[in-house]
Write a structure and sequence with these properties.
The protein is α+β, with helices and mostly antiparallel strands and 930 residues long. The protein has 22 helices and 31 strands. Helix 9 packs parallel to helix 14, helix 17 packs across helix 18 and helix 19 runs antiparallel to helix 20. It is elongated, with a radius of gyration of 59 Å. The termini are far apart. Keywords: ATP-binding, Cell membrane, Hydrolase, Kinase, Membrane, Nucleotide-binding, Phosphoprotein, Transferase, Transmembrane, Transmembrane helix, Two-component regulatory system. It is found in: Cell membrane. This is SpoIIE family protein phosphatase. It is a multi-pass membrane protein.
């Protein structure tokens, strides 16, 4: 079937009596019966055999003619090649610098014979002969010919160079004759070079078998190809004869033009081979579309590009005029046809129109789903408002503004005053817009504006065309005009409500180039704002609770470091990502200029952890007021934790509590008199000690289980720290995280604090910069203290004999020391205090008795003895002979107290130096019963 003529259209039914008729008596449908197919097959086979013989004969003639032509061409080429080689050899020897000079010498033959032989062998010719100007041979490969005269060289004697096929003696040859001239252009001799004709024919004879073999191979290939073509023809026709092939063609053509689907067949060059009636109608093709290029049919750029590309397409929807066509394209080559393609077209305009609404609805659902995923990713009110604006622009609006109540931004409950809000988020698809920036206060005071109407009704308000609407201009006519000039044309304003309470307002704007808002857009806007309102309200509640927790924790942690002279201290507290944790630290001044350092860690995070930390810190402060040793204090703390957790397990709210058990604590007491340090820890990391030279050590201290575990006694370790040493106390959040273990953290900490010239404040800064990321996963408490010593001149010590008479002597010596310190004004009160305490120690205590005076920012008087009996303040009766001493001490001293040592006790008093204590005279009289 030729692709260059239009297929004829067949009628729907063949005429009666035609072969292949659909009459049941004549077979099934248009296909021939078995008998007819057998006879048709025989005729096709005979035709194929005749075609095969004709093709074989034609190929034999063509191959014979081609072989003869190749022989003639080969003979010509061989002779031409011989002439070229002979001429090149003769000219090279004739024009050689020594040839002309050698011809003038008497022994020219002897001189030229070796050179001629060498030239003959080098050029590959059969002979190179030198002749004198009379044609007599001077050299020749055959010595017998030297001296004989050559034939046919007359033209060379006349100065002409020529090539020829020579026939004569000594042999037929292809030769070249070149004259040899002197400087004056006179011929002094000749050079002939050539190849014998027998050698030229020999080369050709060697090529003839190859040519004949190639011709025979070509003939065999052509014959085999003809046989294959005949066989393929038989296979493709399935044994059908011409009448059956015609009937099948007519049937297929009828079906092709009757289907309600456009069919377009193109060849490999993009020319139309066939277009059925439906394709003509759908594509509005011109009357004569056959053999025209696709680009000439006016199908539109997209469809033309798709057809020219030849790519496979499946239900590709492409507009064609006022129709939407579903296009399917398949190449014809994989199905046995020639290179090209078949394209089918279905009209899907109505289906597309009906599915358009579903597509729009699906797009809106997809948009709302995406908004639900993207809005509320953080528990931050401002960021949630920004996410709402980012989601809506540009998919729903060109500009979006979000205003929230100030109380909502602060995390408080929203107020009823909803007519004043603060712009919290703004998103625009273009720059240079006239809308008020983020941070401005937006007031809704005009009752007729869409915003106020939306707040009053509690639902969205649509203003489809802002140019014709007047109510929205009432509040700010100048700003409204600027918005119109910029191109803002449509508005949806939606109140942002959660739990029935207004949190803010969201405005959606569209500008020039965008379709105006419709009623369907209002439902989408309301749904979007409703989802955002829930996220904003959750963020507001979280902000409120987080602020409460942070405030509580801030109030539970030390507000500032107390004044003391024993240590130079710097501290840091860094909350975790959650913002609230259970780590804490404390600095507690103790009597005798001693200082207690405390660092602890509560299990868990959040508000409950902060409350638990406050309870534990309060307990430590209370126990430290008893001036207990570190191991005793942790023992009491452990008992308290166990008791509180045991009581808490029985309550209904136990599931919401953070347990105290598992908390860790490090308690350190530093005495500046001798630089002595006592430490005890419950499940906590040991502190780092940096000596004045910058060497870092981690002392091996006794380790007890965390608080509340029980079953193990607490022990204390002791250190003597030189002045200028640094003591670094920290929680595990400083050195341990997901990226490193404790050992790596300790090594990094050592390198960060190893410099000896850093102050505690610089040490804290270096540790935070080196050890912690921007937002640590665990909270961190850090305490750095550099030690100081009390000067020896500010310490006075007396060992007192266990005798009442020694009291007066010690009192006098103490008075002299006070005079040396320039404290004569406190001598009377100090002598009285010392006398009373020392007398009580001798009368009611046990040896050894020692007195110590310490001078710092206050004057401290300490009297120790070996008894564990603690005196107590009481009011003496009129009949009592004693009992008034401690009362006098309490009146003259600012504070006083008792602490227990490993053996015995110490009663101490402290007097300020800026003023002398003046006791109440009436109280003294009452105490002395006067």
């Amino acid at each position: 079937m030729s692709g260059r003529t239009r297929w004829p259209r067949a009628s729907a039914a063949p005429p009666p009596g035609t072969r292949g008729s659909s009459d049941p008596s004549r077979g099934r449908g248009p296909w021939p019966s078995r008998g007819r197919r057998l006879s048709s097959s025989l005729s096709v086979r005979t035709l194929a055999a005749q075609v095969f013989l004709l093709q074989a004969l034609i190929m034999l003639v063509l191959v014979t003619v081609a072989a003869a032509a190749l022989v003639v061409q080969g003979r010509y080429d061989a002779q031409q090649n011989a002439e070229d080689r002979s001429l090149a050899a003769a000219e090279s020897f004739a024009h050689a610098p020594g040839t002309a000079l050698a011809l003038r010498t008497p022994d020219a033959a002897a001189r030229l014979q070796p050179a001629a032989e060498q030239a003959r062998k080098g050029s590959g010719v059969d002979f190179v002969t030198v002749l004198d100007r009379h044609g007599v041979r001077l050299t020749d490969p055959d010595p017998a010919l030297i001296g004989t005269k050559a034939q046919g060289v007359g033209r060379a004697i006349a100065g002409e160079t020529f090539t020829e096929t020579f026939h004569g003696r000594p042999a037929d040859a292809v030769r070249a004759v070149v004259p040899v001239t002197d400087a004056s252009r006179r011929v002094v001799g000749m050079v002939t070079a050539g190849i014998e004709y027998a050698n030229v024919s020999e080369v050709l004879n060697q090529q003839i078998p190859k040519l004949l073999g190639a011709a025979a191979g070509a003939l065999l290939l052509a014959t085999g190809g003809a046989a294959l073509v005949s066989r393929r023809l038989m296979r493709q026709t399935h044994g059908l004869g011409p009448a059956e092939m015609t009937r099948m063609y007519e049937h297929h053509d009828a079906v092709l033009h009757a289907v309600r689907e456009g069919v377009l067949i193109l060849d490999g060059d993009g020319r139309v081979l066939l277009a059925n009636d439906e394709a003509q109608r759908l594509l509005n093709l011109p009357g004569e579309a056959d053999q025209r290029q696709v680009r000439e049919l006016g199908l539109g750029p997209r469809l033309t590009r798709l057809l020219e590309s030849g790519e496979t397409a499946t239900d590709e929807v492409i507009p064609a005029g006022d129709r939407l066509l579903a296009v399917n394209i398949r190449p014809t080559a994989p199905y046995g046809g020639a290179q090209g393609l078949v394209a089918t077209f279905r009209d899907t305009t109505e289906l597309r129109a009906m599915s358009g609404q579903a597509e729009v609805a699906r797009g809106r659902l997809s948009f709302l789903y995406e908004a639900g995923v993207r809005i509320g990713t953080t528990l931050d009110v401002r960021r949630t408002a920004e996410e709402l604006a980012e989601v809506a622009v540009p998919r729903m609006a060109d500009f979006v503004t979000v205003e929230l109540l100030d109380s909502v931004l602060r995390g408080q409950e929203p107020t009823s005053a909803v007519h004043e809000m603060r712009r919290t988020a703004l998103r625009a698809s273009r720059k240079g817009h006239p809308l008020q920036p983020v941070g401005d206060v937006i007031r809704f005071v005009m009752a007729d504006t869409p915003m106020v109407s939306a707040l009053r009704q509690g639902k969205a308000v649509l203003v489809s065309d802002l140019r014709t609407a007047q109510d929205w201009r009432a509040q700010d006519p100048e700003g409204a005009q600027q918005a119109l000039d910029y191109g803002v044309s449509s508005l949806i304003t939606v109140p942002l409500r959660a739990r029935g309470v207004v949190l803010g307002m969201v405005n959606f704007w569209r500008g020039a180039g965008s379709a105006r808002f419709e009623e369907e857009d209002v439902a989408v806007a309301e749904e979007l704002v409703a989802r955002a309102a829930v996220a904003i309200d959750n963020a507001r509640r979280y902000s409120r609770e987080h602020e409460l927790a942070v405030t509580l924790q801030r109030n539970l942690l030390p507000v500032g470091l107390p004044e003391q002279d024993a240590l130079e201290i710097a501290s840091r507290y860094l909350p975790a990502r959650s913002g609230v944790g259970g780590d804490w630290f404390d600095v507690i001044p103790l009597p005798g200029f001693r200082v207690a350092l405390v660092v602890g860690d509560i299990v868990g995070h959040g508000l409950q952890a902060a409350v638990t930390m406050g309870r534990l810190r309060t307990a430590v402060l209370n126990f430290s007021s008893l001036d207990l040793a570190p191991d005793e204090l942790l023992g009491h703390l452990d008992e308290m934790v166990t008791r509180l957790d045991t009581q808490g397990d029985a309550t209904a709210a136990a599931a919401d509590r953070v347990p105290l058990t598992g908390a860790t604590c490090l308690y350190v007491i530093y005495d500046p008199v001798g630089g002595h340090c006592t430490l005890s820890r419950a499940g906590h990391l040991a502190p780092a000690v940096v000596d004045p030279q910058g060497r870092v050590t981690f002392p091996d201290l006794p380790l007890a289980p965390p608080l509340g575990v029980g079953g193990h006694p607490f022990e204390a370790g002791e250190l003597d720290l030189p002045e200028g040493s640094r003591l670094v106390l920290f929680t595990d959040g400083l050195i341990e995280n997901r990226g490193r273990d404790i050992d790596e953290g300790l090594e990094l900490l050592s390198s960060a604090i190893a410099r000896p010239d850093r102050t505690p404040e610089q040490t804290c800064h270096a540790l935070v910069e080196t050890m912690l990321p921007g937002h640590p996963s665990d909270d961190v408490a850090l305490l750095v203290a550099r030690t100081r010593r009390l000067a020896p001149s500010c310490v006075a010590t007396w060992d007192v004999p266990f005798d009442v008479e020694a009291v007066s002597r010690v009192r006098r010596e103490a008075s002299r020391r006070l005079a040396d310190w320039g404290l004569e004004g406190t001598a009377f009160a100090t002598e009285l205090i010392l006398s009373e305490l020392l007398t009580n120690a001798v009368r009611y205590g046990a040896p050894p008795v020692r007195v110590r005076l310490l001078l710092g920012r206050a004057l401290v008087c300490e009297v120790s003895d070996g008894s564990n009996t603690s005196p107590r303040l009481r009011r003496a009766a009129t009949t009592d002979e004693g009992g008034r001493g401690l009362f006098l001490v309490s009146q003259f001293a600012d504070i006083w107290g008792t602490r227990y040592a490993a053996r015995g006790k110490v009663i101490w008093t402290e007097q300020t130096l800026d003023s002398t204590a003046e006791p109440d005279p009436w109280a003294l009289l009452d105490a002395l019963d006067i």
